[in-house]
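Recall the central idea of this unit: under ordinary conditions, the amino acid sequence of a chain determines the structure it adopts. In this exercise we apply that idea directly, starting from the sequence alone.
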Amino acid sequence: MISLVIVAVLMMTWGRISDIQDAEDRTKEAENTAKINLEYESYDRGAYPNGRMYGTDVISVVNKAINNNEKYLNQSEYQITVEVNIQGDTFTDNSEGTPKTKSILDGLTKGKYIFTGEHLATYNSLVSDAQRFHDFKISRMFVVDRLEYNSSTGRVNKIIFQEKTEEAFRDGYMKAD
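Accordingly, the structure predicted from this sequence is:
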């Protein structure tokens, strides 16, 4: 009889320890999700004047997403897509005081580009050419158009950048929340 009581107490104790461990695991996962989300959300929270970022900043996000995707290679719910919407292949250069329209020689034309996942070749093509890469980094300006989240994990799974012109920023462009 005493042995049955002891076994029952041990089973209850084991169950409570398991519950505590499960709660700790869920807390750690929630903290990790919040940390990862913040890394991407920071690009969308006004850390940049008027939300303006250059191609250099987009490249930082792409590299971060590529590293994440390699870490979670076989876990699609943790993959992050970076989409970049390009307005055109010219920009207005105001560096000499008089606005001049100049060509951006990065090889990207108006349209949507995915720089991660199965479309990594687009990104690799851009970064493999030093001049094209340089033009992308310094000649293009972007804002975060939106962030999307995985419905089951709550993690950021897509960040969409929209190119904006110098004129849009000069005219007081602010992202509508």
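The first strand starts at residue 53 and ends at 54.
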